[in-house]
Design goal:
Shape: globular
Low-confidence stretches: none
Catalytic activity: D-ribose + ATP = D-ribose 5-phosphate + ADP + H(+)
Number of strands: 13
Helix content: 25-40%
Family: Belongs to the carbohydrate kinase PfkB family. Ribokinase subfamily.
Strand content: 15-25%
Distance between the termini: 34 Å
GO molecular function, one term: ribokinase activity
Keywords: ATP-binding, Carbohydrate metabolism, Coiled coil, Cytoplasm, Kinase, Magnesium, Metal-binding, Nucleotide-binding, Potassium, Transferase
EC number: 2.7.1.15
Length: 309
């Protein structure tokens, strides 16, 4: 039986424009191409976890609008083990406007969270059985903080392992961080959480000590082309990056987190799980789109056999 991952997180409709470069303020540029598709960190990470080999229960919330209808159709056909999708008529479905530009395929994103920020206490309580039944709870910061705190508390009570990807960054209390089993910030988020400017492995190690002092037990800081750093408070270990020819880096962090959760749900040791997740993310960035770009388990394994940087 495959391990079970419960992903509590956002759904956004992504509108992506490929650009030669980012526009300057007040400037209009002709896009090279454009596309529309499913996104949101929650839905992206759920898709990655599924394709990386886990059984997935996705929990999200959308508006009662055309984007919400799109979300329902997409999620119904995604192949998840189960979907719990709440809705509201008071806010639109979350959506994101994304620029992808340059040879490195860097991205610039503006998000309207919409319905993602409207989870009620009662809706979260209805999620208790799904969270308790999972091996891993994976969540992010694209929903209202009160709901995130509740789902983490439910997972702790049920002895479900909690991964928090603190993205997009918003201030979080140390009391929440202390309830998390594994925190997975990127360099920018780690900087904002600690006040330590994170640029490389050495600065990530310094920031890691600040986070461990806040109660974080396990930490993986992702550093883009520099790989990642794993730290448990007593030792740290670099996780190498895998070769890639980037086309769109929008879903890289979501690919890493979803694949990591899938591996941990299937009882893979954390160090090995992080290496698989790095390979999985390397394949992801070579494709356009976020959820649509998530590779298969076999494709990530093949990338793992390639020489690392």
């Amino acid at each position: 039986m495959k391990g079970k991952v419960c992903v509590f997180g956002s759904f956004n409709l992504d509108i992506v424009a490929g650009m030669a470069r980012f526009p300057q303020p007040g400037e209009s540029l002709i896009a090279r191409n454009s596309m529309m598709g499913a996104g949101g960190k929650g839905a992206n990470q759920a898709t990655a976890a599924l394709r990386a080999g886990a059984r997935v229960h996705y929990i999200g919330k959308v508006g009662r609008d055309d984007f919400g209808s799109f979300a329902r159709r997409h999620l119904a056909g995604a192949g998840f083990d189960a979907v719990t999708l709440f809705s509201t008529g008071e806010c639109p479905t979350g959506n994101a406007l994304i620029y992808v530009a340059g040879e490195d395929a860097e991205n610039m994103i503006a998000v309207d969270p919409g319905a993602n920020l409207t989870f009620s206490d009662e809706e979260v309580r209805q999620c208790r059985p799904a969270i308790a039944a999972a091996d891993i709870l994976l969540t992010q910061l694209e929903n209202n903080l009160s709901a995130i705190e509740q789902v983490v508390a439910i997972a702790r009570e049920a002895n479900t392992f909690v991964i928090l990807n603190p993205a997009p960054f918003q201030p979080v209390p140390d009391s929440l961080l202390a309830q998390v089993d594994l925190l997975t910030p990127n360099a920018t988020e780690c900087t904002l959480l600690t006040g330590v400017q994170v640029r490389d492995l050495a600065s990530a190690r310094r920031a890691a000590q600040v986070l461990h002092a806040k109660g974080i037990r396990l930490l993986i800081v992702t550093l883009g082309t520099q790989g990642a750093l794993f730290s448990d408070g007593e030792r740290s270990e670099p996780i190498p990056a895998f070769p890639a020819q980037p086309k769109d880096t929008t879903g890289a962090g979501d690919a890493f987190n979803g694949a990591l959760a899938a591996q941990l749900a299937n009882n893979v040791p954390l160090s090995d799980a992080a290496r698989f997740a790095a390979a999985y993310a390397a394949v992801c960035v070579e494709r356009a789109g976020a959820a649509a770009s998530m590779p298969s388990y076999e494709e990530a394994r093949e990338r793992q056999r390639a020489p690392v940087s």
